Amino acid sequence: MIFSLSKKILAYSTLLSIFSMSAYSVDVNTLRETQTFTVSQNITYAFISNYNSGSGVTSCVVNSDGTFGSCIQTANSANNPYTIDFDNNNNAYLSNYNSSTISICPVTYNGMLPLCNQFGISPNPMGIAFTKGYAFFTNYANNSVSSCAQNMDGTLRGCRSVLNLFLSNPWRITIRNKLAYITNLGNNNVTVCSINNGVLSNCAYTGAGFNNPRRIAFNKNNAYIVNMGNNSVSNCSVASDGSLANCAITAYGFNSASDIAIFNNFAYIVNSSDNSVSKCNILSDGSLDNCDLTGYGFSYPMSIAIYTP
User: Fold this and answer.
1) How many CB atoms lie within 10 A of CB 271?
2) Residue 207 to residue 219: CA distance in whole angstroms
3) Whole-angstrom distance, CA of residue 301 vs CA of residue 84
4) Residue 216, CB half-sphere, CA atoms under 13 Å: how many?
5) What is the helix (H) or strand (E) element at residue 5, kind and residue range?
6) Is the pTM value of this prediction over 0.70?
7) 186-198 burial, b for 16+ CB within 10 Å, e for fewer?
8) CA-CA distance, 179 to 201, in Å (whole number)?
């Protein structure tokens, strides 16, 4: 009898806790949608672009343990965004590949993208990266990279092609230490180029063993390349000259892996086919381990960016 009563009390307590957690979650979501933030809250958010029409971007709070919480939809006016990237001025850029447009969305301190301005850019843009007043974006369809000057309001001007060699269906571009790294789907390699006043030069192929590489991200002297072709992540060491060496698969078993982002000691891989994001621990030797799913509310996710407004 005492055992039965104890179980009832425990069950009641559990239900009360679940209800309280649910109510708290709703309150947090409501807060993020309605509260006006005037100063930085030092909250980091994960922004995941959803390619399905009308889904826009999912914005999730990044918890201290690396998991995602309080995920809500924003930027619903975006036009089937493929990728999302941030500049250093609190602007998110969504590449709407199918319509040859880019949406510029200022981010609020509660992790929302409420107002997006869309403008045409040709040819079809894919990934975007920023450095020293310039925006570089890959053109998947015509095997080139373009460079634009960035205005104070985030708009772009004077766009021109700055590279059409060493490229084969370029997907994403990442900038590190005055070097641009471009993933090539067509020949399963990475192009690295020097950057000088909005121009790319001294380009060469680097790294090896990739399979439909979608994105490259860096953590210390490690470069991580997500491979959609075999649903894996390659880990390469970065030499002093910026070249990639000793590339080997460090994690696998993803589901149409389409993008990767690094934050603290975690790597996040976007899984397009099952509408999920995997969180992996980065170990001291640079390898990835303990990959688990995190977050919710994605709809054919294609890209991820982690940003602190």
Assistant:
1) 20
2) 16
3) 11
4) 37
5) helix 2-34
6) yes
7) eebbbbbbebeeb
8) 10
